[in-house]
Amino acid sequence: MDVLNAEDQGCGRTIRIGVLTPHAAIGPEEEFPAMAPGRLVTRVARVSSDALAVGDTGNQPTTPPALRALTALPDLRDAARMLATSSSDVVGYASTTTAYAIGFDAETAMVSRLSALFAVPVAATCASAVLALRVLDVERVALIGAPWFDAELNELGAAYFSSQGFDVTSSASAGLSRDPRRIEPAAVCAWTSRHLGDEAEGIFIGGNGFRAAGAIEPLEASIGRPVLTSNQVLLWNLLAHAGASFEINGYGQLFAEKRPSAQAPLDPRARLDKHR
Known about the structure:
Radius of gyration: 17 Å
Structural class: alpha/beta
């Protein structure tokens, strides 16, 4: 699926982003262009496997074993061929739950394999969130999962960020509609404001199909702390890799921070100094 948000019309180079995801839900292909209107061309390919058992969720894997299965190299190669018809400057793996299921080290290894396949920089959702939290000097983080995340996924999310040295103050699914098309930014703001503890220094709202980007700025204004979402952090990291020079406004203080240099290693394991 191609989302042709813009061609270059005198406002800077158009960034061509390839997206791989195992999920059927619409996510980056809607939120990336909303955050960077007139700047991007996005192509999405969905990773699948004929060998994967399909349950009640159809072709949208949600269990950790199913998500782990789709990170196998043959399936990644098949997905890479789907994107090969269109040249990309960068590629993102858009799946919060995959990272939760496989852990940070395996996610990093998957990114390395994909980068070798595509011969372009690759970023993944949760490793991008780790990097963003460190840029913002957030050590105590509250995790808010998409409404369809179950207790096991929320526990895996807490383990993922704890493994990288963060103090996870809470990890729970948002009590909102399980239909992403029915979730409004105002509802995300209201629910989060009511359920956020004072101990958290920042929030990560997980789920690339949880289209919460529109809630970032009003929620930050309400709670006075950084708010990160899956598609926001992934786009931020991809633009850093692509060397994008344009600004993004209205989607949180993360984009106001100086992104790590495209020439410097983007290693989320390393603590980064803030650049004001």
